[in-house]
Amino acid sequence: MKKYIYILFTVLGLSSCESELEITSPSQLTTAGFWDTEEGAMAAHTGLYGTYRFSNYSFWLLGEIRSDIWGGETFESPSSINLIESNINVSTAPFGGWAGLYSNIHKLNDFIINAPNVSFANEEDKNHLMGQAYGLRAFYYYTLLKTWGGVPIILEPFTEIDPAGLSRARSSQSEVMAQIKSDITASLSAFGSDGSFFDGSKVYWSKAATLALKGDVYIWSGNLMGGGATDFNEAKSALQQIALLEVDLESTYPDLWGKVNEDNSEFIFAVQYKDQESSNFYNSFTGRSTEIYPAFNESGASMDGFVIGGANRFGPVEKTILLLDDNEDSRKAANFIFLYSNDNGGTGYPNYDAANYFGAIFTKFLGDDDGTGGRIFENDTPVYRYADVVLLLAEAKNLLGEDPSVEINQIRERAYGVNYVVGTHGYTNGSQTDNANAILNERYKEFIGEGKRWWDLRRAGNSFVFDNVSFLNAGDEHKLLLPITLDMIGRNPLLEQTPGYN
Fold this sequence. Notes:
The protein is mainly alpha-helical. Helix content is 43%, strand content 5%.
């Protein structure tokens, strides 16, 4: 059996690294009675989040790196330049094997098929777990759809199988979207009226997460796939329900970040990291002491002695720096320490100075001092939080021809705090295009580094991508989706290349 499952992943090209082929759990344990007990099912449930965390950097790259945020100066060799510059063709196709996401889907399929047959002491717990599994599978397929368009739909775990029947063709985008919506419906049905967070923790999927995903999905399908007002109203309704599920905006933006703030009211679903267990990937946005210590921060203070650890492979572009260059907006200091090559006579550079700019340290997920001169990068990273819901609701309302200014100003008022002045900072309803750009700019500042910006531009429509991403222009529509690698097609002859890359 193990031989056949291995062949499946090879033929479909579902994984590009050895660890993604370690699928002995849970399918391989099925014959050993793995699904006979609640304890076994709970172990499988825990594993679903371990595999999500393993893929989290890929999720981040897919959702942000091709946008207009990164690609600026770094202290060290920059990463992901081809993706930043959309230098993509068949020979340079990134994320071979569908970024390994089908390995994760396989485990979800196994859970969805087998968990209902397990007896639980509390059947409500099982229903919650099923709601989580369907929601996560919808999220995976939504990511695949946004990235490649049509993809194979696989809904069953593979056990004893005929290797001759392993190849799967790509389903159409409409078929994939229908499956995503079906899983969202199944997730909400399983949750029922239970809006709780499993074990009281936001590191597990929840009804609120499914509703956030539903809002996201239905705006995409309404705007990009012809669903129109029907889908926008579905999105609006789902997003409005979330306010009833014990989530809300934190009072200040800085209160969202740092290990001590992870148990906040705003996170809806976050990926958990722990010291000695797993570190997040944001050490690549910091630097080394030898590079940092000669520099000065915006206030003119020396960085000598600042506790740092990691690398500096991603730097914000000037557009990002200028967008945040407002000292009354708390998101500036919460996201970056901007460094300069001198202290400007002790006065520093409270506003951006291109001639003396040295680089930036991304601080939102900076981690904690480990007591030995380094940092522990164990910040939980949000996938959905309530600010996301508020601004998605603004999108849905705008697309319905309604006024989104209340939601935009809700986020701005939180960002400016005591500095907020309605006449200066408040937004007034404008044209649909003006509103869309205002929402995009607010999301830009709000979610820097959270893996959102590329998807935000894509969801708004092709023209917004071309207006904001300098490496893409009208005529590059095929590049909005990624190609698949030639070896994937060689292993699975039923696969066809993404349109535009032949």
